[in-house]
Fold this sequence. Notes:
The protein is mainly beta. It has a single domain (about 1-185), classed as Porin, CATH 2.40.160.20. It has 2 helices and 8 strands. It has an 8-stranded antiparallel beta barrel. The longest helix is centred in the first third of the chain and has 20 residues, at about 1-20.
Amino acid sequence: xxxxxxxxxxxxxxxxxxxxxxxxxxxxxxxxxxxxxxxxxxxxxxxxxxxxxxxxxxxxxxxxxxxxxxxxxxxxxxxxxxxxxxxxxxxxxxxxxxxxxxxxxxxxxxxxxxxxxxxxxxxxxxxxxxxxxxxxxxxxxxxxxxxxxxxxxxxxxxxxxxxxxxxxxxxxxxxxxxxxxxxxxxxx
Length: 188
């Protein structure tokens, strides 16, 4: 399982390196096109998107309970963006906690504050975790609001970096919270 997640991380890193090598800093038009203050070149249309993220989270507060110490995983979201700023979608993934494996099923929403090459955004995921470990634990609900930066590298490729507060809770109202660090690739 960890080998698959590491392979996904290597794939995203290789794509980032490939896109960075395509940018020629010698051409003045390229500098203008990739300036953080210039607007994007393409006109946005409503369209579908795919967003894959790698998550690394560390437990906050008491970490003695199962599924409260840390986790590593990946999520993939497919959805629709209505303009250059508003994104909504549905997703699924896999999280490898220190106590077992869970699969999130989620609803995603994101709002970009600008349509520039580098744009801050807010986002939130709401969903349910499906226990895949066979342990005696209920399927908890979770919320994951966060803030991040989106960097447009090509007309339809965006790299994202997000910091969020991930919290899941069970029917017995036991809550575990994590600081969640995510990097991702969004394709339009």
